[in-house]
Amino acid sequence: MRLIRSFLIAFSTYSRIPVPQVEWTEENRRYAMCFFPLIGAVLGLILWGWLALCDALRIGAFLRGAVAALLPLLVTGGIHMDGYMDVTDALASWQPKEKRLEILKDSHAGAFAVMGCAGYLLLSAALFSEARAADGLKLLCVFVLSRTLSALALTIFRNARPQGMLDDFSRTAQRRMILVSGMIYGIVCVAIWGLTGGWLALICPAAAALCLLYYRHMAYKQFGGVTGDLAGWFLQVTELALAAVVVMGGKLL
Questions:
Q1: Is residue 209 part of a domain?
Q2: Which residues contact 15 (CB under 8 A, 6 or more apart)?
Q3: Can you give the pTM of this predicted structure?
Q4: Is 43 in contact with 143 (CB distance < 8 Å)?
Q5: In terms of CB atoms within 10 Å, which of 17, 98, 150, 165 comes out highest?
Q6: Of 50, 91, 105, 104, nearest in space to 72 by CA
Q7: Can you name the residues that pair with 159 across neighbouring β-strands?
Q8: 3-class SS at 18?
């Protein structure tokens, strides 16, 4: 029952997928991050279905890409995009570290956040407009691996705010379980990429590793560690980078 409650907390926290509500206790959320990548799997299945529908009905590239770019926001409620926008604002402020952390907590969206979001969605829509149903399983792994790495970073990287939500999860999570589940998710994704696209089994993990290394460098240098908003920023950046590898790489190789 404890695992089921952790599963429900993960989905109720990081998605808008209807699930039964359970009490938010340390015991119940202990393994929540182990189930975080499964939200990516659900999102990937929905996107796969949309691409298959577009192929079957010969829906044009513009509508194909626009809906595909919005699906992650609909499934997650925009929680990760919110973090991406906050971090974009903070980085563009060129303020001291303490001020940048304050900007992350500000509920108002600045001009750089709006421009960053618009640019992200435009690029995402453009990439998905080139995707087909045959890319569905490969793209599903993109959403799974981005969340897997986000959960792993929680257990490894220093937290910028000792009292933040991210630190709360890291204190209650079973790190060994997150590491083990993360390895399993990662192996499955690499195996699927290997079976469906050969070269993807090498390039996608390499691209994801570069995103992770840059994430650590940027977070430590600019903010003193990671936060929930930075985790959202990393997830969005990794998803876009891996989607570009899957969609555009397939045209080049």
A1: yes
A2: 39, 42, 43, 75, 76, 77
A3: 0.90
A4: yes
A5: 150
A6: 50
A7: 226
A8: coil
Q: Look at the block and give the residue holding tokens 């940027």.
A: 218
- Asked if residue 136 is part of any domain, the answer here is yes
Distance CA 118, CA 148 (A): 26
Structural domain boundaries, residue 8? 2-238
First to last CA, the chain: 47
The total of structural domains in the chain comes to: 1
pLDDT (tens, 9 = 90+) of the chain, 253 residues, equals 778 888 888 888 898 988 888 877 777 778 888 899 999 999 999 999 999 999 999 999 999 999 999 999 999 999 999 999 989 988 887 777 777 777 777 677 778 889 999 999 999 999 999 999 999 999 999 999 999 999 999 888 888 766 555 555 555 557 788 888 999 999 999 999 999 877 888 999 999 999 999 999 999 999 888 988 899 999 999 999 999 999 987 666 5
The answer as to whether 248 is a domain residue is: no
Residue 130 in domain: yes
